[in-house]
Design goal:
It is a single chain. It is built from seven helices and 15 strands. The protein is α/β, with parallel strands linked by helices. It has two domains: about 110 residues, Alpha-Beta Horseshoe (Leucine-rich repeat, LRR (right-handed beta-alpha superhelix)), CATH 3.80.10; about 160 residues, Leucine-rich repeat, LRR (right-handed beta-alpha superhelix) (Alpha-Beta Horseshoe). The structure holds 2-acetamido-2-deoxy-beta-D-glucopyranose (8 copies).
């Protein structure tokens, strides 16, 4: 009797534990919604026992520092995987190789310092969307990523978010192996130039976001690259455009390409102060102080130059004069003595004559004699 009760209790316990193992502790599972969430639970690694029905898997806001090939075993149905804000530093090769149905991968808000070359390989190249916003730790990580994008065979990737990563330079031809890429977000980085080949290979690109970067202008090479991507809609706002002569080509290109530049009407000068906030559309060489007024400016410049030259010459003459005076100081002193003596003589002569003149007895005679 007792043993039967014992067996029943054991059975109940087993059932309970197996029901429990259908969802990892600290996670919430919904079979109906095919969704598993493990949010802000201080997890140190991807939990074991995630149910196979999961299509949407959210593991957010934990402290997982590394993911590897063992992290997502047997999750062939996961379509959407979000791993954002987990402080992930390392992604090993083939971390996602078991996720045969994976279409959307969100790694945003991590600190990826080590991305192994085949980290992003997903079987069948099923991945459509990859979010790496605020995810790259430093420049080495960006180089690693370029390699992983090449080795990942991401032939169906359509959307790539690389915003807010402090990117200064894009490795050349970084997107060359993403033939299906349609939307590329590079907003809020520190990019200053587009080079020949920067976007080579992304032939299907429909939308490119370059807002909030460090572009002061786009030079010939960059304009040629943007021009080559004739079907891509561009976002170019919130850059520190510097409205001096070097912007002229870009301003002209912008005026001619305003249909493609989605925010063309919002592009404005950041410098110099007197042109701050002035729209780039319709700015000509004249406004930028290039050549619109070439003759007048040239003449002005020549005049200024000649004034400066005159000043220098006069200054030089003055210095020579002072130097000569200095060399002749003895002679000058002598000369001044002589002058003084001469003056004294003359004055004494006057004095003498004054005395004579003021003698009432001699006055009229002398005066008439002088006349
Ligand atoms: C994935 O989904 C299919 C169909 O919904 C199902 O038959 C299969 O068992 C699931 N895989 C796992 C590992 O549960
Ligand atoms: C995956 O997420 C996207 C939006 O993020 C959603 O439209 C799609 O339905 C999700 N996929 C599944 C299988 O739930
Ligand atoms: C990528 O993730 C960030 C933050 O997690 C989010 O704001 C952004 O909308 C995502 N990008 C895309 C294209 O969904
Ligand atoms: C990036 O960070 C990693 C890990 O801290 C370090 O080994 C590497 O030298 C850093 N690279 C650069 C360019 O700072
Ligand atoms: C830009 O990126 C930085 C981190 O790189 C982030 O802190 C900031 O919130 C972002 N700004 C916007 C407007 O997204
Ligand atoms: C860009 O580079 C390619 C080869 O990489 C070259 O054929 C082409 O002439 C270059 N274009 C410009 C504008 O320099
Ligand atoms: C620049 O213009 C925008 C609207 O076009 C306005 O909101 C902003 O205050 C202006 N900034 C300055 C410094 O004038
Ligand atoms: C801008 O383009 C229009 C034609 O699209 C042209 O008439 C106008 O002169 C251009 N303005 C400047 C400043 O280049």
């Amino acid at each position: 009797m007792l043993s039967l009760v014992g067996r029943l209790v054991l059975l109940v316990l087993l059932c309970a534990s197996s029901a429990h193992s259908a969802c990892p502790s600290l996670c919430e599972c919904s079979e109906a919604a095919q969704t598993v969430k493990c949010v802000s639970k201080d997890l140190r690694e991807v939990p074991l026992g995630i149910p196979g029905y999961a299509r949407n898997l959210f593991i957010l806001g934990n402290h997982i520092s590394r993911i590897g090939p063992e992290s997502f075993k047997g999750l062939e149905n996961v379509t959407n995987l979000s791993l954002s804000n987990n402080r992930i530093m390392e992604v090993e090769s083939h971390s996602f190789s078991g996720l045969r149905s994976l279409r959307s991968l969100d790694l945003s808000g991590n600190q990826l310092a080590l991305i192994h070359p085949e980290a992003l390989a997903v079987p069948g190249g099923s991945l459509r969307e990859l979010n790496l916003s605020r995810a790259l730790y430093n420049r080495s990580a960006a180089m690693d990523l370029a390699t992983a994008l090449r080795w990942g065979a991401l032939t169906h990737l359509q959307r790539l978010d690389l915003s807010a990563n402090h990117l200064v330079l894009l490795p050349p031809a970084m997107f060359a192996h993403l033939p299906a890429l349609r939307r590329l977000l590079l907003a809020n980085n520190s990019l200053v130039a587009v080079h020949n080949g920067t976007f080579r290979g992304a032939e299907q690109l429909q939308e490119l976001d370059l807002t909030q970067n460090g572009f002061r202008t786009f030079r010939e090479e960059g304009l040629a690259e943007l021009e080559r991507m004739g079907n891509t809609h561009l976002h170019l706002g919130q850059n520190p455009y510097t409205c001096v002569c070097g912007l002229e080509d870009f301003a002209a290109w912008l005026n001619a390409s305003r249909a493609r530049v989605v925010d063309a009407h919002h592009l404005a000068c950041a410098f110099p102060p007197e042109l701050r906030n002035v729209s780039l559309l319709g700015l000509g060489g004249r406004d930028l102080g290039c050549h619109g007024d070439m003759a007048g400016e040239g003449a002005d410049l020549a005049l200024q130059t000649s004034y400066v030259f005159l000043g220098v010459v006069l200054g030089f003459v003055g210095v020579v004069f002072l130097f000569v005076l200095y060399l002749n100081r003895k002679g000058i002193k002598k000369w001044m003595m002589e002058m003084r003596d001469a003056c004294r003589d003359v004055l004494e002569g006057y004095h003498y004559r004054y005395e004579i003149d003021s003698d009432p007895r001699l006055g009229p005679v002398s005066t008439s004699g002088d006349l």
